[in-house]
Design goal:
This protein has 236 residues and is mainly α. Helix content is 81%, strand content 0%.
């Protein structure tokens, strides 16, 4: 029987290349590229937010309000699905609270920012005091770092509290912008690192495939046809 033709071998090779490790590597590389692109957008948004902190504060409050509204609608849908059970009214109450809080935050973003800024200042104060007292009482190996963290939290809480309510115009916006900035830098690092790893793996697979192909080309072709026998062979 005749072996596969040259056209069939080319079509098989093209089909294997379209579904092989090289194609998967290209897909992964594109995915990591999109991650890096998203990280770049987040970094740009974080830098813009650090410049316009008031706009960033209002934006974060509006996003927070819409998230509460969406969460309330989802909770209400789950409560309706679970009607007739013991958790129905609890789900309804949670959904109503989320919806009400979302409406209040969206209609009064400045007042919500002031309340959350006061809450953040109190958290900084209490956290700093507990760290300072705990580091002095325990006196562990990380006492210096704990004292530094406690002093920084206490100082930050006092600065925010003394400048309140004016501090509500920039504190939350700075935190929101810094979160975007660091998240974007993390995505960029993951995207660039992932593309490098995929490129290295693809190069190794290509080198290995080229080596195997060279070995197959160097190997002698197996004999398919036996030599013809003479008329007197096999007779005594």
């Amino acid at each position: 029987m005749n072996g596969p033709t040259a056209g069939g071998r080319k079509r098989g090779a093209a089909k294997g290349a379209g579904h092989g490790p090289a194609a998967e590597g290209r897909k992964l590389s594109r995915s990591f590229g999109w991650l890096a692109f998203l990280g770049t957008l987040l970094v740009i948004a974080g830098i813009v937010g650090l410049i316009y902190t008031g706009v960033a504060t209002l934006t974060s409050m509006l996003l927070f309000g819409w998230l509460l509204l969406i969460g309330g609608l989802v909770a209400l849908a789950h409560a309706i699905e679970s009607r007739g059970t013991n958790y129905f009214w609890l789900g309804v109450v949670v959904a109503a609270l989320n919806l009400a809080a979302g409406v209040v935050v969206i209609r009064h973003p400045e007042g919500t920012a002031e309340a959350l800024t006061m809450f953040a200042a109190l958290l900084f104060l209490t956290g700093g005091v507990f760290r300072l007292v705990g580091s002095v009482v325990v006196r562990g190996p990380q006492m210096g770092w704990t004292l530094l963290q406690g002093a920084f939290g206490l100082l930050l809480g006092l600065l925010v509290l003394f400048d309140w309510p004016h501090s509500s115009l920039y504190v939350l916006g700075v935190f929101f912008s810094l979160a975007l900035l660091f998240d974007g830098l993390g995505l960029i690092a993951i995207g660039i690192g992932g593309r490098r790893i995929v490129s290295m793996v693809s190069d190794r697979l290509d080198d290995r495939g080229a080596g195997r192909g060279a070995e197959r080309l160097d190997a002698p072709a197996p004999a398919t046809d036996s030599p013809p026998k003479a008329p007197g062979d096999g007779q005594k």
